[in-house]
Amino acid sequence: MNDITGGDPNFFVRSNAHIDLSNAQVRDDGGRINGVADSMIYAAARFAAYFVRRSCKTREEMTTQMAAHSWRLTELFRECLEVNMRENLERFDEK
User: Fold this and answer.
1) Is 65 within 8 Å of 56 (Cβ atoms)?
2) Distance between CA 66 and CA 62 in Å, rounded?
3) Which residues, at least 6 apart from 3, have a Cβ–Cβ distance to it below 8 Å?
4) Three-class HEC string of 18-81
5) Helix (H, G, I), strand (E, B) or coil at 16
6) Which residues contact 25 (CB under 8 A, 6 or more apart)?
7) Mind listing the pLDDT tens digit for each residue in 38-81?
8) How far apart are CA 50 and CA 55, in angstroms?
9) In sequence order, what are the residues at sequence separation of 6 or more whose Cβ sits closer than 8 angstroms to the Cβ of residue 40?
10) Is 54 exposed, middle or buried (0-12, 13-18, 19+ CB in 10 A)?
11) In this structure, is the dihedral angle defined by the CA atoms of residues 48, 50, 55 and 56, taken in order, positive or negative?
């Protein structure tokens, strides 16, 4: 996987803040992790769509670039998911 951080020293500070929020929501929602996970995925997709809109200069550009952005973001998510799944598998017995 490419270095998703781009050398940004605040990358993990921001991502950990999102994870901490989700963990708190799981605790506050009686352990309903599925609903919290679904909400986080929806929020990530919604923000990604906003990011794509902001990165395009015109409606036409966004229209022609939607499939490429969707593919790139989906692949990035898949790569990140696979890395994190492997890390969780390695620590599985730690719970």
Assistant:
1) yes
2) 6
3) none
4) HHHHHHHHHHHCCCCHHHHHHHHHHHHHHHHHHHHHHHCCCHHHHHHHHHHHHHHHHHHHHHHH
5) helix
6) 36, 39
7) 999 999 999 999 999 999 999 999 999 999 999 999 999 999 99
8) 9
9) 18, 22
10) exposed
11) positive
Kindly tell me if the per-residue pLDDT of 2 is higher than 90. Answer: no
21, two tokens: 């929020």
User: Token pair of 72, please?
Assistant: 């790139």
Amino acid at 31: G
> Domains of the chain: which residue ranges?
9-55, 57-95
> For the chain, what is the largest distance between any 2 Cα atoms, rounded to a whole number of angstroms?
50
Residues constituting the chain: 95
> Which residue in this structure is represented by tokens 């997709």?
45
pTM recorded for the entire structure:
0.83
Q: Could you tell me if 37 and 25 are in contact, meaning their C-beta atoms sit under 8 angstroms apart? A: no
